[in-house]
Amino acid sequence: MDTTKLLLQDLFLNYSKDVIPVKNQSKPITVYMDLSLVSINDFDEVAGTIAIVAILHISWKDESLVWNTSMYGNTTLLTFPQTKLWLPEMFLLNPVDSNEPISNTHFKVTVANTGNVLWLAGGLFKATCTPDISKFPFDQHTCTLDVSPWGFSSEQVTLVIPSPTIHFPFYSMNSEWDVIGSNTTVWSDAFPIGKYSITIKRRYLNFVVSVVIPIIMLALVNPFVFVLPFDSGERASYSMTVLLAFTVYMTVVSDRMPASSFPISYLAYYILSMLTSSVLIVIVNIFQTRTYGKDDAVHSVPRYISRFITFFRWKFRSNKIHTKEQSLSVQVSGECKTVKDGENVPQLQKPESLNKTEPLDEKMFEVENKSNNKAYSPTWYVVAKIADMVYFAMFSIITVVVTIALFVVITS
């Protein structure tokens, strides 16, 4: 103990912590600095800030603190408060609140007999970070901590970061964010700056289950309003309920995103497109109800609509005829040949109706009202039912295509 007291007394006898500790004052002192991440306390993408706990491993050689170990009881290391010697005080250059040094009077330094000093400074870092929420909730962000020995120029201090990445020996996992990468660089111009970049990715499972999947389910059931019967009286309330649900979910998603116009999340675009589709469905459903209620005796169906309905019915009827022709042709075969081993195979006979010379489709399917020589004239009820089929197919295809496009974009 007496030897250590004597050593401390001799080391700081003529020591000045206001002077850079190099004998040749025309040369800069080399400061090595690495960063160890302890935890990610919070990342606020709305405010654009990140709060982390980290430790700075700062070391340099103090040429004023060198001693001969044999003269001081073979003492090779000393630990004492940081206030006793010169420090390259580090400042965070992109803080959220105030620009204060990354240290306090409680930190200590360790000095070796060769003059090498190790200073472990750190704490809670609150830095600004511009988020990129275009692929929300599958988003990832890169935040950078800019650390510099404030007040020292590059001619006085040379900053070196030995490790190309951030260290994680003490890291505690965050429940919302995963660290997927990091890198370090040194910017040196008028003054040195150490840049520590960390890339984090959102744990998206909770948001997908609570928001994304319900939105997609609402989008998929939205076109089914055209399947409901007109007489049920639930078509208007059904479509309006889905429209209001989309409005609520759009508000929920907006609360989780920063209030900026660029970039905007693709999920917000998706909800807006589904909201637009829901509005169109409400409008179309109103006109469909009006069409269903028209009186055929007062308002006859226009000719162009009748032609479309006739073509639509003929197209689907012709497909059914073609299908039945194929099924019947399987039952019809020619005469069977004798088979090997002398065994006879039963011969399939043609149905008597097929032995006639009339075409199959004319025999089995007669055009409606052909006997009266009148063109088929649909009613407004038939027009509304066929329009329901068309609208259901159209909005279903739009919903599926837009949903697939969303997942392709945000997961790529």
Quick summary:
The protein has seven helices and ten strands. By secondary structure, the chain is α+β, with helices and mostly antiparallel strands. The radius of gyration is 40 Å and the shape is rod-shaped.
| Chain-averaged pLDDT | 81
Number of helices: 7
Q: Count up the domains.
A: 2
The count of β-strands is 10
CATH class of the largest domain: Mainly Beta
Helix content: 25-40%
Shape: rod-shaped
Coarse structural class? alpha+beta
Beta-strand share of residues:
15-25%
SSE layout:
Layout: H1 2-11, E1 29-44, E2 49-61, E3 77-81, E4 90-92, E5 108-112, E6 116-128, E7 140-149, E8 157-160, E9 177-188, E10 192-202, H2 205-221, H3 235-255, H4 266-292, H5 303-331, H6 360-364, H7 380-410
Parallel strand pairs: 1-8
Antiparallel strand pairs: 1-2, 2-6, 3-5, 4-7, 5-6, 7-10, 9-10
